[in-house]
Specification:
Layout (H helix, E strand, L loop, with lengths): L3 H5 L5 H28 L1 H9 L1 H33 L3 H26 L1 H26 L4 H21 L5 H23 L2 H19 L5
Length: about 220
């Protein structure tokens, strides 16, 4: 909702909206990725503490798949907003119409095979497809540097590897170390592969303002 007025402004320069688009994708991803990776890594322990061992044994993979879907879905809100702001809501409507029957079929097969975990798998798969198509739509409306596109592919590969590592059946301290290491590596990859110097500088200023606003002491 914050980005929509800028993306829909007819007098907005492509360079400025493109920079805002790239930085928004990067900033949302860097804030959400560590949280979702923590959910993948410690789903069993969290559910065991909250609802008990039986629930944890049956729902760990549900949480893991949902965490991955939340990540795709949240980052995809940026290209979704761009498409809407550029006056093409018909594209997203057609996308959802075309994927309805395949999604229902996938949901039926997954639920029949894996139960509630299958429902989470189907939903996460649909959000992944949504994200891919929405980024493709956005790339046609808002040209992005080849560096951004190539970096995005590399980051997706790293995300998959990080999630696999976080879900490995190893001790809690090892999983914690893996989460810290892979989160730092993926975030550095976003900075180094997807963004140019100007983008990195702007994101640094944005992060500084967020931190200052969060921890500033209110005046009497």
């Amino acid at each position: 909702t914050v980005l929509f007025p800028t993306f829909s402004a007819v007098d907005e320069s492509m360079d400025r909206s493109g920079a805002l688009y790239r930085r928004s994708v990067a900033f949302v991803f860097m804030m959400l990725f560590p949280v979702c990776l923590l959910a993948v890594a410690f789903a069993r322990e969290g559910l065991h503490f909250w609802l008990g061992a039986d629930f944890a044994n049956n729902s760990t993979w549900v949480v893991r798949w949902l965490a991955l879907g939340v990540l795709w879905n949240s980052v995809a809100m940026i290209p979704y907003t761009l498409v809407q702001g550029r006056g093409r809501p018909d594209l997203t409507a057609r996308l959802h119409m075309f994927e309805l029957l395949p999604y229902l079929a996938l949901m039926w097969v997954c639920i029949k095979t894996w139960g509630i975990t299958g429902a989470a798998i189907a939903w996460s798969a649909r959000t992944g497809v949504d994200a891919i198509v929405l980024f493709w739509f956005a790339a046609r409306m808002q040209p992005t540097p080849a560096r951004f596109r190539r970096g995005g592919i590399a980051v997706v590969v790293m995300i998959i590897a990080a999630v696999v590592l976080a879900a490995m059946p190893v001790s809690v301290p090892v999983r914690g170390a893996l989460v810290l290491a892979t989160s730092a590596l993926v975030i550095l990859a976003v900075f180094g592969l997807m963004l140019d110097r100007q983008d990195r500088s702007a994101l640094g200023r944005m992060a500084g303002r967020v931190v200052m606003a969060r921890f500033a002491t209110p005046r009497a």
